[in-house]
Amino acid sequence: MQILVSNPSPLIVLAKINRLYLLKEFYDNIYIPEAVYKECVLC
């Protein structure tokens, strides 16, 4: 079981190149802390 807890940088880069779906291919569970979510959404 692969678990990912991410910081904003990789999420922002993957979103900009429309590749966020790749995370699902490599990880079973993805946890995004609230502060990271806010930073990604406000960018």
Write the layout of secondary structure elements.
Blueprint: E1 3-5, H1 8-16, H2 22-26, E2 29-31, H3 34-42
Parallel strand pairs: 1-2
Helix pairs in contact: 1-3
Describe the structure.
Helices cover 53% and strands 14% of the residues. The chain is built from 3 helices and 2 strands, in the order E-H-H-E-H. It has a two-stranded parallel ribbon with strand order 1-2. Helix 1 (8-16) packs parallel to helix 3. The radius of gyration is 10 Å and the shape is flat. The N and C termini lie far apart (31 Å). The mean pLDDT is 87.
Task: Please describe the structure with a list of short key phrases separated by commas or semicolons.
43 residues; alpha+beta; two-stranded parallel ribbon; 2 strands; flat
In short:
With 43 residues, the protein is α+β, with helices and mostly antiparallel strands. It has three helices and two strands, in the order βααβα. Helix content is 53%, strand content 14%.
* Low-confidence parts: none
Taking the alpha carbons of the first and last residues, their distance comes to 31 Å
Strand content: 5-15%
The global form is: flat
Main beta sheet strand tally, sense and closure: 2 strands, parallel
Number of helix segments?
Answer: 3
Quaternary status: single chain
